[in-house]
Amino acid sequence: MPLVRIDLSKDAPAERIRVVSQAVYGAMTDIANVPIHDKFQIVTRHSTDEIIYPDEGYLGVTYSPDLIFIQITWVAGRSIDVKKRFYRRIADEIHEKAGVRKEDVWISLVDASREDWSFGNGDMQYAPK
């Protein structure tokens, strides 16, 4: 049930978007126990003035115009170890397959409850029984 938002430069090649999309989906199914076919992603391209980051870096990480923001809203409950492996897998795969620096793969997880989702029809498909 994750909803993935991917924000990146309008100049990013289409292949980069495909790689990022697949890296996130693969990590979700292989590491985070997300069901197969549960792939809801929104990709937004931005001009250079719409992706803002600290030029001096943050927490020892410096960024470039290739910075990719990945935000994933999903059901809460995964361990810190799973989240660490999840982050690493995504950064490694995007770096290996698209040549993006690992420093430019920025990931945020938003934990939600099962009742916070409606997959259509105005229904709460995961409502408590």
Descriptive overview:
It is a single chain. With 129 residues, the chain is α/β, with parallel strands linked by helices. It has a single domain (3-116), classed as Macrophage Migration Inhibitory Factor (2-Layer Sandwich), CATH 3.30.429.10. It is built from 2 helices and 4 strands; from the N terminus they run βαββαβ. It has helices at residues 14-30, 80-98; strands at 3-9, 40-46, 68-75, 105-112. The protein has a 4-stranded mixed sheet, covered by helices on one side. α1 (14-30) links the parallel β1 and β2 (40-46). The model has no long low-confidence stretch (mean pLDDT 95).
How are the SSEs placed, and which strands pair?
Layout lengths: L2 E7 L4 H17 L9 E7 L21 E8 L4 H19 L6 E8 L17
Parallel strand pairs: 1-2, 3-4
Antiparallel strand pairs: 1-3
Helix pairs in contact: 1-2
Unreliably modeled segments: none
**What is the class in the CATH system?**
Alpha Beta
- Average pLDDT confidence is 95
Gap from first CA to last CA: 18 Å
Succession of helices and strands: EHEEHE
Strand line-up in the sheet with most strands: 2-1-3-4
State the helical fraction: 25-40%
Strand portion = 15-25%
Main pleated sheet: 4 strands, mixed
Radius of gyration: 15 Å
Work out the number of β strands: 4
CATH superfamily: Macrophage Migration Inhibitory Factor
Which structural class matches the secondary elements?
alpha/beta
**CATH topology label:** Macrophage Migration Inhibitory Factor
If classified by CATH, what would the architecture be? 2-Layer Sandwich
